[in-house]
Amino acid sequence: MLRLVYTGTKVTDSQATSQLIYMPSIDVFHGYNLTSELDIIRKVYRDGTLIEMGTNGANAEQMHHAASVDADTELYLWSDTRVKAYAIHPITWTFDLNRPLTTGIATGDWSNDSVFWREPDGTHKYIKGFSAKNARQFDVITGASDGDFAVFPSGPDLQDFAPMLMGGNNIGFVASNTGRIRVWDWVTKVLVLDSYVTLFSAIAFDFVHRNFLTIRASDDRLQLWEENVEPAAVSNPVASPGSSLRYTAETMSVIVTGADGELVPDVLVDWTVVENPGLGPAKGIVSPAQSKTNGLGVATTTYCPPGLDWMIGDDELITATVLV
Amino acid sequence: MIELLLTKNVPFQFDLCQPGDEALSNGSLCTPPRLYRQEWYQAAGPQAFWYDYTNDVYRLQGTFTEVGIAGLGNSHQLITINPETGDATKVGGQALNFNNRHVTLGSYNLCYIYRLASGPPASPSNSILEVDNITGIPSATQIANPVAIGSEYGSLSANNFHINRTLSYISITLAASLQIWNYDTTTLIHEIAYPNENVTLKTLYESDNIAYIILDTPVTNQFDVVKVDVSLGTVENYITIQPIAGTDNEVEFAFDTRRKILAVYHQRAVNATTGANEDVIEFFKMIPAATVITDPVPLRVVRVNERVKLISHVLGDHGEAGIGKIVTVTNSGSGIVFSPHPALGANGSFMIDYGAPASPGSDTITNAVEV
């Protein structure tokens, strides 16, 4: 489970918000109702402030699926009925029907489970998720793709399987029925993050401040999450080489994991050493007294046992503690 | 918890109060409620209201009744209104032909009409014509034929339009979009879709490139003003102005290209007791005002004795950035606000640098912004 920062206001609507998109240039989330053909467009702020942009009304045939944004603040929208994509003005939500985006992507490859963005070299990219839990990256202009890659393992994570932009080369894939988030580097096809949030009806990633914003499925409240996993468990320290000899330093290590078994990087672990209760002060030391977990969730320190004063029957207890 | 100092729905700032107006002013909006000294009132809604740059007057076309000539006064006439004094004068003339309505300012600061039907002087029907600014008489010169232009979509009315004669562009508003055509080649250049289905009330000319589109937007129950660059086909802003007052029978809009202000004419019922004309004009500068300040939200978990960033926004009513405002952040607990006057970013956001208390508890951070 990711670390929850804040549970905010209930987003009170006559209609649910089923999709959120983060707009970095104006630091706001655009929310709309995908199931009713983009019926409601609104700006959603982190404190629950909603600014209505309007309903689509008779214009519904013009504005449909696959709204997305790139780091240059361009917002794109795919129209099912017009079978074209358009660039949308992020503040006014207007667009020019006479100037569709030029694309070589085949019509059948557009879907609402997709994201657009523009690379630093000016090329436009598009990633679409498939129900078989695969994803495929396209060049928007030429339509060329680089083949599928699996983003979810087999199992129950399937409902509303949709990608989202995470900044850099990272693309997040989420499953609303399990709350699972898997973040991939779409270039190297390496898994960057695999964790969970509370079940949600909509989710977006703020890639400026590095937060997820979700609308909680159970009560429509906004929740703000760090992209860091909340530590839930620390393993017992393991000594290496474990010889328990005078003057022989031991490397002590622990693994910090989240509630769903995730390895938790970048958390501080406090190390203490005491003589077992009732037997007096510790004779050995740990150094450093505080260390940070690495990418595999492992934190280490060095335990220096006592020397000549380590007597038979002495017993020292080394403890690793994580601040949450 | 937050202290909200702003009053919502004050979208434009105004500074055209005239000496002696006894104008209402709150620093953001000033409404001079002028009662016209002429003894007339409108028996029916106005058909057109526009700014005549050449003569520096507002022109109002409609059916008026002259007080004191009961039973005789109902007639279709033209009234001019002096923008400085509010004095109104009945003009009359050929422009009062009922078929010649939907008058608006356009290229070269000339006036244009969309003529619904043929009539004297000889001219084609359903066409855009230039109007003589002095006499109010339409010329026989057809600038554009919106029926021909709109053939792709069937018969297209042009109750509202913007004329750019430099590029030969005519911009015509539809319910949910603005079409920009080259009227020489009858080529559709842009079609700008709005996020709502609207009732388009008026297209206003600021320059050959800039048009303001006034929309009645049911979803927000307010008027929206869309600022469009018709040459580029881009929307620069989308602002809300207040709904029709309960006493209004009808509202008309004109853009004063000399003073760069929006004039809103409220046609109201006569005073039931005195029979006096109670129509008023409001003037607005086309500057969005801040109407919202959001609550501070932490971006990371707040821990005892640690500093954390919180984020908030100052916004206009469509989410425009509230720039150039002074924000004040205070707290009531034992934490420390290290940025009591944070700077607003270009998108209206501001960061609060907050130091949490040394022991567990709660604190209340309050944002306030100058109006």
Describe this structure in words.
With 324 residues, chain A is mainly beta. Chain A folds into 2 domains: 2-228, TolB, C-terminal domain (Neuraminidase); 232-323, Immunoglobulin-like, CATH 2.60.40.10. Chain A has no helices and 28 strands. Chain A has strands at 2-10, 19-23, 28-32, 40-44, 50-55, 68-69, 75-79, 84-88, 95-96, 114-118, 124-129, 134-139, 145-150, 162-165, 170-175, 180-185, 190-196, 200-206, 211-216, 221-229, 231-234, 238-240, 250-258, 268-275, 285-287, 290-292, 298-304, 316-322. In chain A, strands 21, 22, 23, 25 and 27 form a 5-stranded antiparallel beta sheet that branches. In chain A, strand 4 and strand 5 form a beta hairpin. Chain B contains 1 helix and 29 strands. In chain B, strands 3, 4, 5, 6 and 7 form a 5-stranded antiparallel beta sheet that branches. The chains are: A mainly beta (324), B mainly beta (371). Chain A binds chain B through residues 3-6, 8, 25-28, 41, 43, 45-49, 51-59, 62-63, 89, 91-99, 209, 211, 224, 226, 323, and chain B through 175-177, 188-197, 217, 219-220, 226, 233-235, 237-238, 292, 294-301, 303, 311-313, 315, 317-321, 345, 347-349. Strand 9 of chain A pairs antiparallel with strand 15 (187-193) of chain B, so a sheet runs across the interface.
